[in-house]
Design a protein that fits this description.
Shape: globular
Strand order of the largest sheet: 8-7-9-6-5-10
Radius of gyration: 20 Å
Structural class: alpha/beta
CATH architecture of the largest domain: 3-Layer(aba) Sandwich
Number of helices: 13
CATH superfamily of the largest domain: Isocitrate/Isopropylmalate dehydrogenase-like
Mean pLDDT: 91
CATH topology of the largest domain: Rossmann fold
Amino acid sequence: MDFIHDLKRRLQSISHRIVFPEGDDIRIIQAARCLSDDNIAEIVLLGDSTDITQAADRNKISLHDLEVINPETSDDCDRYAVSYVENRGRTKLSIASRIVKKPLNYGAMMVKMGQVDLMVAGACHATKKVIEAAGSCVGLAESSRVPSSFFIMNFADRKPLVFADCAVNTDPTAEALADIAILTAFNAQKILQAPAKVALLSFSTKGSGNHASIDKLKRALQIAQAKAPELDIDGELQVDSALVKSVAAHKLNDIGAVAGQANVLIFPDLNAANIGYKLVQHLANAEAIGPILQGFSLPVADLSRGSTVDEIVATSIVALTMKLAR
């Protein structure tokens, strides 16, 4: 947990605001209380004030200094709707007015309008819904083709690893994989405060296997190295070749700057990534922080619907750190 404590210290001297659209979920209320008490951020909870108050009272949690907003009755909905139409010209104002009253969209509009620094959602909604809200209200960064995500896998006995893309892109193209690798590398460096060593993962290490998926990884590597030659990115590598120096030395004549010492693992597709992070989480007892969404113009963090309070707090801290480093 030293990793998270270090990030906390970086955040505590700066004012931040976080909106949680799922404000009546008890895990969210508990996480909000922790973040406020630790001076990490001011908190906005979205939802019916009665429901939120009753949930807090049942669990003896104080809502002191936590702001509660009901999107259904908020005075800000009119200007949010106008802003929404400005960004999505084909949407009628009457429709936009209904759209922005949905908590996920309202929270994303708060980010868009600069009223909060970060939206954290997903405890009660599928990742797809969080991405849809972020995409329609916040929008992609100019340099981004597709949104993607990463997890910080935090261990008790080793330095953290970054896994991508574990939540968004089912079968990314070579171009998308290259973009995911580059964006994850830059974000990993902000968070880990260390150079990114990025491995494009496969069942093959440098030609030990043959398959169309390997050809895609080779193409992704070429694209990534051409776009960001300053980054250490290599592949295709099996996961043991990426992480274990002795294995890398046995399988490769020249291990280079990544093999055996990777701290960023780029999975070839969503099947491998989702399975991989959950295996590590549950069998290695690692804390899975995220998924942190990337590629949007402003910060949005997703949550696994199985997230614990500690994971919600940690995800919020990591996502705020990304904003701090922008």
